[in-house]
Amino acid sequence: MNKFIKILCLVPMSILLASCDNGFEEMNVNPNASTEVVPGFLFTNAQLSTVNVNFTGSAYLTIGQSMQHFATYKEVPAAGDKYFNFSYSTGAWNAYSGAVIQIQQVIDAVSENPIDINKLSVARIWKAYLFHRLTDLYGDVPYREAGKALTEKNYTPKYDLQSEIYADMLSELEEAASAFDDAQPTFGNADLIYGGNISKWKKFAYSLMLRLGMRLSEVDPGAAKNWVEKAIAGGVITDDSDIAVINYVDGSQTISRNFIASGLLATDYITPGGDNVEGGKLAKTLIDHLKNTADPRLNVISIVWIPSGSTFVADTSTALQKGMPNAAFNSLPAEFNSFSEPNPNTILKYNAPLLVFTNAEVHLLLAEAALRNWYSGSTAEASYMQAVTSGMKQWSLFGGAGVISDDKIAKYLAANPYKTAGTFNEQMEQIQTQKWVTLFLEDEYEIFSNWRRTGYPDLTPTNYPGNLTGGKIPTRFVVPDSEGIYNTDNFNEAVDRQGGTNTLSSVVWWDK
After folding, report:
1. pLDDT at position 273, please?
2. Per-residue pLDDT tens digits for 236-293
3. Rounded distance between C-alpha atoms, residue 12 and residue 25, angstroms
4. Which of 107, 330, 426, 476 is the most exposed place for a label (fewest CB within 10 A)?
5. Average pLDDT of the chain?
6. Could you tell me the pTM of the whole model?
7. Region 181-203: what's the mean pLDDT?
């Protein structure tokens, strides 16, 4: 009887629980959330997430300073200026929680139907663009198993050898470029760079192949020559109309603003004529080079704030431009306001475009290929001159303040002729130093990689007391400590095979 009463007492509760559970899952579904991947929307997000990940910490404070485009008097943000604070270099790893997952979801979604071949090809190309940046910064990284946490519950992906990552990226680019079908649909306007234009994406793929092939020049010259020649034969970005650009707009939606302008204004250059949050200015190395070569880009890139009544005016006069020395100060220098800053009428415009891949860079790669006798379609001199011309003209995309006249370009080339009679190293230095200027700010990542590959420009390291590299310019980014905690075995294996260290002085596979 007692057992029977207990059962009766439990029955109403069981009925209540059953009734409460009825429809509970449906009630907890967010009606505004998509239940499936929308490839176009996600591809747009993957493009944006790829280019803007951790710009301030990685591209500006770490690379921008170490490549001596920028300088700071402060110590905390001096990752590249004084070789302090390695944590700024860990931020680019955030691509794994954003862009890597996004592009993998796009690839998975558009791999099911043959009519999506163009979308799949573009996604594969963009994945190579994303991962070439990650592996160039960190060396061996998760690649084949990356981005599988949602689909395969793989939270501890293995680290692939950088040599194997490069081989696969180059293969992916070749296959993707060959698979395009003019009869099939594209991402259309969801593609922020080319609007789904297949012929332009082919050129982008081969241009990236050219960049990656040249990256192997010191570690595997035979493979480098093969991929460079294959890329050139495929057709690369040589015309202004084929430049890969993301256009941003100014407005209340901060996501639509140029992230470089937003990042620089938020961290340093928001208040004319005063102290800057991160203590930053343009570096003496950059400004001196531009002045010594009478480069007209100086007046497009830099300004000095001049008092005018109760306000300040941005002055682009050549004579006034002066860069701040790297690692020269540890407190606000008296002459701080006399140092050059980025031009608010070009670089710091919220609607400034982002030049993702330009014909100026491609012509410099072609100049190097000609110098190495890997390209017979032009001379090194002709490609170099075209690179300089394109590199100066591209600033017109930033508006009227960026326009450089043909006359100024001609005067620059006449005053700085290509060193046709110079040694191989002298010509290499001229080509690569020009790249250091041409890609300023738009692609600091590529400048960093190209400097490590070639040794140019010839930068003088700083040796500030207590620096983390022994007075050596950083040569690799530091993988976050979290990897050693949550992906311990794979992380430790990768560190061991890359020299046993995870520091700013570690080196990647192709850096010889």
Report:
1. 84
2. 999 999 999 999 999 888 889 999 999 999 999 988 988 899 999 999 999 999 999 9
3. 22
4. 426
5. 93
6. 0.92
7. 98
Task: Please give the pLDDT value at position 464.
Answer: 97
User: Residue 251: what pLDDT?
Assistant: 85
- Name, in order, each residue with C-beta under 8 angstroms of 280's C-beta and a sequence gap of 6 or more: 60, 70, 71, 72, 77, 267, 268, 269
- Mean pLDDT within 140-164: 95
pLDDT for res 9: 42
Structure tokens at 180: 């395009």
- Provide the β-strand partners of residue 71: 281
CB 435 within 8 A of CB 447: yes
CA dihedral (199, 205, 208, 212) positive or negative: negative
Q: CA 157, CA 284: separation in Å to the nearest integer?
A: 43
Instruction: Of 59, 86, 67, 58, give the one whose Cα is nearest residue 460.
Output: 67
Do 203 and 161 meet the contact criterion of CB atoms below 8 Å apart?
no
Q: What sign does the CA torsion over 451, 453, 456, 460 have?
A: positive
Residue 13, pLDDT > 50, answer no
- Contact yes or no for 510/453 (Cβ under 8 A): yes
- Residue 511's CB: how many other CB atoms inside 10 A? 18
Cα dihedral 145, 149, 150, 152 sign = positive
- Entry field: residues in the chain: 512
For 474-507, the pLDDT digits (tens) are 999 999 999 999 999 999 999 999 999 999 999 9
- In the DSSP assignment, the letter for residue 112 is S
Residue carrying the six token digits 């929307």: 41
In this predicted structure, what is the pLDDT of residue 274? Answer: 80
Alpha helix positions (H), 180-268: 198-215, 221-234, 259-267
Q: What is the pLDDT of residues 161-173, one digit of tens each?
A: 999 999 999 999 9
Helix axes 444-454, 424-438, angle to 10 degrees: 170
Report which residue type is found at 47: Q
Helix (H, G, I), strand (E, B) or coil at 149: helix
Beta bridge partners of 246: 354
Residue 270: count of CB within 10 angstroms of its CB: 12
How many helices (H) and strands (E) in the chain? 20, 9
The confidence score (pLDDT) of residue 271 equals 86
DSSP-derived 3-state class of residue 382: helix
Under 8 Å between Cβ of 478 and 502: yes
Phi then psi dihedrals of residue 72, to 5 deg: -140, 150
d(CA 199, CA 209): 15
Contact 177, 234 (CB under 8 A): yes
Task: Please give the Cα distance from 244 to 227 (Å, whole number).
Answer: 21
* Beta carbons of 285 and 459 less than 8 angstroms apart: yes
Instruction: State how far the Cα of 267 lies from the Cα of 262, in Å rounded to an integer.
Output: 9
pLDDT at 463 over 50: yes
Q: Decide the pairing of beta strands 244-246 and 354-357.
A: antiparallel
Q: Rounded to an integer, what distance in angstroms lies between the CA atom of residue 76 and that of residue 85?
A: 7
